[in-house]
Amino acid sequence: MKQPLGTLLVVSGPSGSGKTTLCRRATENGLCVYSISCTTRRPRSGEVDGVDYHFLTAAEFAARVERGDFLEYAEVHGNRYGTLKADILNLLEQGKNVVMDIDVQGAEQIRACVDGILPKCYTDVYIYVPQEELRNRLCGRQTDEDEVISLRLRNAAREDACLPRYQYCLVSSDRETDYAAFAALLKCQSMRVALMRE
Ligand code: 5GP
After folding, report:
1. Nearest CA owner, ligand 1 atom 5
2. Of 82, 100, 174, 187, which has fewest CB within 10 angstroms of its CB?
3. Using one digit for the tens of pLDDT, what is the confidence trace for 28-40?
4. Which atom from ligand 1 is nearest to the alpha carbon of 19?
5. pTM higher than 0.85 for the full model?
């Protein structure tokens, strides 16, 4: 039997939903590869270029858009974010499962791709957190200013409206329960018959 294609799990949810942690942990546990996005936002303390993101200037980002390098790109919270096309397709072809931590606009763009292997590999999950719980989490992590937190809460309500577009919804509770559900979903998706090659 030939090596099956990898599955592409797109993970969205508001800032503070824990989606990055879920994706990173699954990657560390060898279940998948993390898709490293490009962004024009400044690195937060502790973030490393080429690990957390490829940090680009606005001009560098625009040049890559111009070259058609992105599978999807969007403006989120006033900064630009995008996923590099070549990296993802190579990994899926090699049978690697890929997790992509992207916003609802990016997910919509990937759903719209009808050519090649993407429609076969694609699956998505929305990490849902009730508003009050989300406010507590964003205030607790103390990485962002009050103004930024308010913006993120307003954006969260807008993002939640896109939940019906997703195949799966993970209602966030505690870290361990969330991770168990996430890892199980990834495992199931990687077993889809659609990923097998003749
Ligand atoms: P943060 O700045 O907190 O790391 O991410 C802000 C938002 O941008 C999150 O919702 C995250 O999922 C989203 N994001 C990160 N990378 C990408 C990307 O490559 N494309 C899109 N569309 N959104 C992204």
Report:
1. 15
2. 174
3. 999 999 999 999 9
4. 12
5. yes
